[in-house]
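Hi support team,

I submitted a single chain yesterday and got back a structure, but I'm not sure I'm reading the token output correctly. Could someone confirm the output below corresponds to the sequence I sent? I've pasted both exactly as they appear in my results page.

Thanks,
R.
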Amino acid sequence: IPIFIGSRLRGLCEPPCKKGFGWDISGPENPHLPFGDYIPWDEFPEVSEQGFLDDGASTLNELFHRFPLSKNEAIRSIMNQAQPGWIYGWGDPVTSNDFGDVHKYLWDTFQRLLFNETSQSSKFDILPVLS
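Hi R., thanks for writing in. Yes, this is the structure output for that exact sequence:
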């Protein structure tokens, strides 16, 4: 399962991150994570970046021991459902007509962001349902 090391992808900058050192601090309302309409990123485990730098093996072992197997299975299910959204297409890039869903995921995200900018609606009002 994906594990976040530190808070940078959530748009934060906690130590050892330093403001202005190649990382835009966008805030939690604008994370650096794609497809928030399809993937509930808050469900994924996160470990301290500093803890990982200090002793990565112990930090990960602690996470693995305290992370419930049922939640692990739920996250794998989420990733399996969202898998087509990471694929542009199959086969020859010039002649193939077999497309993945990345274009749909990007378009849906664009529409949600545009809708939110104009109406200030909650993103949860128009979430697509994963099948």
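A quick pointer for reading it: The longest strand covers residues 4-5. Let us know if anything else looks off.

Best,
Support desk
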